[in-house]
Amino acid sequence: MQWIDVMRNPYLQNLPFKIELNQWGRIEMSPASNQHGLAQADLVTELRKRRGGSVLVECSVQTTDGVRVADVAWVSNGLLKEFGDATPFPRAPELCVEIMLPDNSWAEMHLKTSLYLEAGALEVWIVGLDGQRSVMKHPT
Fold it and tell me: Which CATH code fits 33-137?
């Protein structure tokens, strides 16, 4: 399955959880919670203060392990101009944020972090529901 197939499938619309595709085109799902939504809203409020770009929630990114969806992302105006309305983005935004839920493992979070960095992100945050952050930066 390709990402466009997921977006066009009426059975996959308005689901109460996030969908991602792994490298084999299989759907992986993460249930959403209100705590998750509050954490996203707080991050959007914080990141909107950054100049020169925009904040996206549920930002789809093509990675070497399929399409991954960052909970929150900050993308520069230049990258937005380059990719327009491409879905998924063919490279990661400058900042990708994952909110760590109790059922997430650190192995899963580190995999996503490395996939976003490999796809071009300059920085990846893993944010716990308690607000604690782990920040990884692209080696330059």
Answer: 3.90.1570.10
Q: For 46-98, how does the pLDDT look when each residue is reduced to its tens digit (9 = 90+)?
A: 999 999 999 999 999 999 999 999 999 999 999 999 998 899 999 999 999 99
* 95 bridge partner residues: 74, 123
Domains in the chain: boundaries: 33-137
Q: Could you tell me if 65 and 22 are in contact, meaning their C-beta atoms sit under 8 angstroms apart?
A: yes
List pLDDT tens digits, range 13-60.
776 566 677 777 777 766 667 888 899 999 999 999 999 999 999 999
Q: What contacts 29, CB < 8 A, 6 or more positions away? A: 15, 17, 18, 19, 20
CA angle 4, 71, 120 (to 5 degrees): 75
SS3 17: strand
